[in-house]
## 1
Amino acid sequence: RSPYDREIVRIGLPALGALAADPLVSLVDTAFIGRLGAVALAAVAIASAIYAAVFAVFNFLEYAVTPLVAQSIGAGDRDEAGRFTVAALAISVMGGVIAGVGLIVFSEPLLRAFGAEPDVLESAVLYLRIRALGVPALLVVLVGHGAFRGYQDTRTPLIVTLGLNAVNLVLDPILIFGLDWGVAGAAWATVVAQWFGA
């Protein structure tokens, strides 16, 4: 046992919960989209793979801001921690807008390059273009998570992640089946949830 055990658990458990809850959005979307048939499921799967690849490029923002903020807080310089956070948020918004526009403009050639068959291409393009509108929000959420961890607050990212998932869970059936938007409904539910999280 260590005198730091309690503090490690206080910080570590919510962080683990937030990491575990992150993939739930995709899991929920897949569960609902699967009820629309194989073509819809294939369209969402291939579009999601491209979205995940773009997202992976910006993953460094979340993990870069945490130690910078933590070091500033440890040195007692909250102003510097704030500057690092604001700078990372600005980069995430700018990068998100650029990536989102890129996904909208190049969605069809990207999907073809990833092997999208003609029967799934139209739905995949629609899904990817709508999801692209959420890239800035998703990056803001990620940077926010990283900054909060630097401030030793892992509960807030957990609450944001659970709230985001709850919004998606409620909107998915309404937009996919209630309004009969299908694949577009799943994409809009996720985009709204991501902006809610941001």
## 2
Amino acid sequence: VPVNVSRERFERLVVEALVSIPEPLRARMENVAVVVEEWPTPDHLAGAGLDEEDLLFGLYEGTPLTERGVVAEAVLPDKITIFQGPLEEACASEEEIREEVRTTIVHEVAHHFGFDEERLAELGYD
């Protein structure tokens, strides 16, 4: 049975997950916006290589730090989007949502640091 939490509560779970990332890594997360959306759009799903019936918990959009040049360029912020609806649909308790939000945040932040899907799967964050 899906669990529904308020948007405010869900956003607090996202902040808790971000704060749980060790400070040395958080300090290197420059120019990254973390936002919450209800559901992914068809474009989000297509960008992640998923079909419309697939669940997408989070999405990183940007240029990983490992692919940036030495000279700082003026660029738009990278964006990590956490999707509340799919997470609620997949979880049976608020505690499970908390755990999945943290896993999703770690997964998307890892993309910011240059980890690809294969490496994340090896680490258990698939």
## 3
Amino acid sequence: KLGREDDACELARLAIAPEQETRKKTTLVTCHSALGEVAATRGQMDEADSHYVKALEEAKLSRLPMLECGAAGGWKRHVLEPAGRDCSDAEAILDEACTEMKKTREQLAQVLV
């Protein structure tokens, strides 16, 4: 957000490196999502897609539906829609997470932007 994409990527890569043994799912999801967003803005859509898929895997393991919402929303917004790809998988993840939280998408609209 501050225009320091290279610094953000370096920090995110360090945090997700296996030797760091990062266990906090919030950190892993955030870092993979950031790497996915930056890769997408640079036109590296395969790399972006793989980071968002990893973010979604970690979010699912966290059992925190809000993390799933963030990762699915980012994947949809930064990878799927710009590439004209089918968004149904991301939509299904968002719907399932909202159901788990007993919230509607309208109630979470500010978060899902």
## 4
Amino acid sequence: MNSVLDKKSEILQLVNQAMIDFENISDEAWNNKPQPLKWSKKELLGHLVDSAVNNIRRLVVGQYEQGAKIIYHQDEWVNYQNYQDTAIVEVIMLWKLLNYQISRVIENIPEEKLQNTCDTGKGKIEMHTLSFFIDDYVVHLKYHLNQITA
């Protein structure tokens, strides 16, 4: 259980550092799309919002429903939520609050539930444990925060 609490702390540290780093990103930089089909920094942060939402769902549902099918189509989520035309302060606040929530969810998962699984496969079965989702969430968060703040 200690490593789960470490992940919770790591998420909160990443959020706190990102909030500082975000202050140095101009509106122009947030909105710039490197190519028409590539996400802007704002859309990348929106993708992290969606990742948090989907992982909260996995971590909650996975505690009471073994093997639940929870699929996430990232391009559709970013597109349909229209982050590009949303005020960056709103996207940042939503991302911050969702990470506080995912941290609370992680903190409260009983150790015996960490090996419960969800199926995330698109057109196939792809089972992962709740413990995997927690670890993967942190790796994914770091990866995209580095892209945003680079």
